[in-house]
Specification:
Blueprint lengths: L3 E9 L3 H7 L15 E4 L9 H15 L6 H4 L9 E5 L7 E8 L2
Antiparallel strand pairs: 1-2, 1-4, 3-4
Length: about 110
């Protein structure tokens, strides 16, 4: 049975050196996602969630919703005590957003 996942925006960032060189004047952190926002989903992009961020994290949502416990990348990434969790980021190289994906037991 598929589980739901909770998506929490942990941090919005700005890579200042890269933004200064490549970004438009006045570029700041992502205007679409805010620290502390929470979304719930099973397999579909939640309403209001950034399309590009969804593309970057969907594989973890899919895996966790279908019962994966973690063990990502040879288990050298997320501490095993945090089963059912992945810490991901969107693919915006100038202002990445860090997102916690966790399976919710309902």
């Amino acid at each position: 049975m598929m589980k739901r996942c909770k998506l929490t925006v942990l941090k919005t960032t700005l890579q200042e050196e890269l933004a200064e060189e490549y970004g438009v004047p006045g570029l700041g952190p992502c205007p679409l996602m805010q620290e502390g926002q929470v979304f719930y989903t099973d397999y579909a992009k939640p309403e209001g969630f950034c399309d590009e961020a969804w593309k970057a994290i969907y594989q973890y949502v899919f895996a966790l919703a279908h019962g994966a416990e973690g063990g990502w990348y040879y288990s050298d990434w997320i501490d095993p005590k945090h089963k059912g969790v992945a810490i991901c980021s969107c693919n915006d190289g100038l202002r990445p957003v860090i997102i916690k994906v966790e399976r919710v037991e309902e």
